[in-house]
Amino acid sequence: MTCSEFLALLDDLIDDAVSPDTRTELQQHLKGCEHCEVTLNTTRKTIEIYRSHEIYELPASLRERLHAAIMARCKKGC
Amino acid sequence: MREKSSHFPWEFSQPKRMATIQSVAGENEQHPDVALVEQVRAGDVSAYDKLVRKYERQVFRIAQHITQNREDAEDVMQDAFLKAFEKLDQFQGNSKFYTWLVRIAVNESLMRLRKRRTGKMVSIDEDVETEEGSVPRDLADWAPDPEQNYSQAELAEILRKTIQGLPPGFRIVFVLRDVDGLSTEETAETLGLSVPAVKSRLLRARLQLRERLSRYFRKKQGGAK
Q: What domains are defined for chain A?
């Protein structure tokens, strides 16, 4: 397996959507390719960081104000 | 390339899949959202209150990622929930309330963006060829737990700046798929894109974000920061 072939399957590997045979091939490639290992691990970390950090926080005060406005309009039948 | 002696702990571990937001109900079981929608339809507005509270954060986040403007995101959030309430009769119980709501929020966000850009067509359909492409160039390893080197505020700023640099069509696919936890099919349906288009954008979005974050998180020469 070449690095390009590995890269083409990177998303499927991350999303756990590869067959056991393909997984073995990917694992074989990783054993000898530091670059692909770094790419895989740092891409996983990228997703994990974005998933675990809320970068656009909605402050409670603003949330309550918007919420009250929405509900007031809905009660009037929008 | 050298033979490696160590692996990161997360290598080949089962990915931490975020539970799909609406995967609680089984095939034949009614989803709690559908029950709430039915209560609203029967005249119980307080049931809508529950739906708003459940999804307000996600709707606001999506609106922020698309409009990249705080004021617009607040308006979008308000308008999306009002429109969803108005159109509740059109909601088909066989689709998921959340993906239906996200579709409304995405359309409202694009309309808002169009207004701000004085009528200039804004689309997430175009497939953009970026200079960065999808070939990893920064192959330096990252420091272990690189986020520990920054305060919460610094980290949030880095993550915002980094994702804002992506083309809008890549950004929204990444947010729906990887942050919100929608499936590829749900993301495609929500954005009116094909499944291959979502897959192609997701790969490029992930790799471009990785490349950009490497500037901050790579191991420093002569020892980690």
A: 3-75 (1.10.10)
